[in-house]
Amino acid sequence: MAWLGEIDLGTRASALPDARMVTLTIDGATVEVPEGTSIMRAAALGGTSIPKLCATDNLEAFGSCRVCLVEVEGRAGYPASCTTPVTPGMVVRTQSERLTQLRRGVMELYISDHPLDCLTCSANGDCELQDVAGAVGLRDVRYGYEGANHLAADKDESNPYFAFDPTKCIVCSRCVRACDEVQGTFALTVEGRGFDSVIAASQSEDFLSSECVSCGACVQACPTSALIEKSVEAIGTPDRAVVTTCAYCGVGCTFRAELRGEQLVRMVPWKEGKANRGHSCVKGRFAWGYANHAERILNPMIRESIDQPWREVSWAEAIGRVASEFRRIQAEHGRRAVGGITSSRCTNEETYLVQKLIRQGFGNNNVDTCARVCHSPTGYGLKTTFGTSAGTQDFDSVMAADVMMVIGANPTDGHPVFASRMKQRLRQGARLIVVDPRRTDLVRSAHIEADHHLPLQPGTNVALLTAMAHVVVTEGLVDEDYVRARCDLEAFAEWAAFVAEEARSPEATEALTRVPAADLRAAARLYATGGRAAIYYGLGVTEHSQGSSTVIAIANLAMATGNVGLEGAGVNPLRGQNNVQGACDMGSFPHEYSGYRHVADAETRALFEAAWGVELDPEPGLRIPNMLDAATEGRFRALYVQGEDILQSDPNTQHVAAGLAAMECVVVQDLFLNETANYAHVFLPGSTFLEKDGTFTNAERRIQRVRRVMEPKNGLADWEIVQAVAQALDLDWNYAHPSEIMDEIARLTPTFARVSYDALEAHGSLQWPATDATPTGTPTMHLDGFVRGKGHFVVTDYIPTDEKTGPRYPLLLTTGRILSHYNVGAQTRRTENVAWHPEDRLEIHPSDAENRGLRDGDWVTLKSRAGETTLRALVTERVAPGVVYTTFHHPVTQANVITTDYSDWATNCPEYKVTAVQVSASNGPSDWQEAYARQAERARRIEPVAAE
Length: 948
Prior knowledge:
Oligomer: single chain
Strand content: 15-25%
Largest sheet: 7 strands, mixed
Shape: globular
Number of helices: 29
Structural class: alpha/beta
């Protein structure tokens, strides 16, 4: 539909490198396009629309529907315009009496196999079949509809988000091709022949039980209502759209939020989105219903103590309570007795305001964020080696990679849209190394298989990477020209001598890593010699006691092989939440202002003091665990938490609970009464990403607009709430729009110097650094040299974690995410995504299960030195013997009651990925779970509002 602002050009752009321009004539008009362009696309670019059904520019040309036939002068027959490339001087006619007859005949056959219920069809007005029938002038059908597709006539409504009606299917195969080419799941197929052909879920009776991952690519590709969103059936076709950015993972997909009136009907991935290129996952595409969930809190609430019920109050009273309590506590206990936590889910502007509130309003640097809890080793490691705290590439560059190494990440679950791009490249011939204790989907799935899977023992990342470096150095695989030109040679020599020692060889470290030396050597050779090699890593790298050392080891390996500063190579952290990168950029750490500048730096501090009109504290503040420790000791009394649930997401849950319970005033600003709110005294209802303006920064440093789709149901956007608190503390804040906040960020943050809402509108997005030298951003970092000057090699000695297995705790627990849920599940658990993952399960190897007398589905106790919980077992060979794995999406499990206080040596990032545990049969919930459930139920009571 034209109002959506997207035109389907029918086929993809020419893929020929350095294609020369070709001039041809279409319907008497001269058109110039790159060589390799199809006639259909050339016509569309010239303003001529050729009818089509099987063609779409999201997919490879197929040429099956025969509606797009054209006449080419000097050529016999009527070629399909979608599969026929242009040639110099070609003369094309898209309309003639003969073409009209042919197209009408083709359309008659399609319509004869399709019910003529257009007036009552949910896709009426949004149906390509209907549009093409009108375009070719079809008015009568000589063949009667007899309900063909009888092999699968029952409507499949098993998927909670969309339905499949085979009677309306024209078997154009667009859904099958989208599943294959775009998503890479290969979950759909065509069964039967001729009029008996039907689309079916491969090896399954329905969509829900099939391999379908509900990305929505098939629904988006369908030209009829055979595949259609249930929301469209319920509400009707949309009539307007707003382009915005997804608020789930760090990929940062761009969507058209399509509405009918004020009702959101569907989220459609935007083809112009530079992070997702028109693709999506089940979360971004469908799991937005939490915005209207009955459990969402829409009114501010306060209470005197956490054992009392909540009382709804006005915004003025709630904001006044926050200001008065923080003033009182600082007067009684000192300036540093309060602090705050920013959110990796809120916008850059909102995050910036929270850290500004703490520094300017509270007068200290006690600000932290979950970004440190997951990716602070990235900041430390990459800044130390390269000079900047972010990934080196954009997502598009994966299509130029010859080798990919994925370590400590599970992209198909955590970053599924980017994983689809990876799978596309792998099917084109790229090679893959997976370093992970689990056999993830990238190790082997439809039409892809890793060349090497290195199932290392959790906690031995540094030993494994150093052994790979040993192979590179001792076998003469170092890119010496690159190292001489780009790196610090003295540091390199020290590092090379260290890794070359026999004690670092694959053979010597095999007992530690449990990776066969021959496999590790082969993987190292492939990485070093296979062409352009990119490393993608996740929380399985950072959430260790040696997280920073592992990031440095990755950087060392990339520099030694010359794999930084060129397209298709580099070092790329896959950020977990939508704005983890932005939260880091905005100064959410207790020791850094925005742009990663230390609070002790007098010149930087003077810049902020001049802008904010106050004297700022030069002493770094407290990190979250330090705040909790100080709270239990009586030195830290109040906490402002925006958009984070530290009780569920942070390690050692019982310690977090004790710290929160010891505080006099905990303020939670969120959508729901989350687990942290059990210990809160003031609740400020937050707004969803659909209800605000701002920006997010994704894992590739891409800054993108978030646009308000609907009015905030709570009355205020999150940035307005923070501003109201600042004003109550007598700060002179008067922002009228988030664009003004970004202007301030740009004035104070060198890497954001050329970022503005006008620039984002003009360019669609910007990748920082966006400076006077690079006003349109920087897709690839370190092109001509490292930001720090010379690349810096650092020796990374393997030091075993203090968390060790033994007779009482013989297994190692590692944790992670699953496709259908996001972080602590606060949003996705309040959507239909629970159909795929209604509970956290403990993955355990068959041999470990048999040794304990456990079967699949049994309730088990999971116990560590920190605590215990219960959940059901999932017996699987995805994990190695001696390793167990679970997700952390459901508070009833509270997986982090098991994890310990061990953390990264440099950044305090918790060691979530290595916990010694025992697993045994269980008769029911643990004592802690029962006590926690009672406390949570009591803490969430809300006094009924008195009738007027």
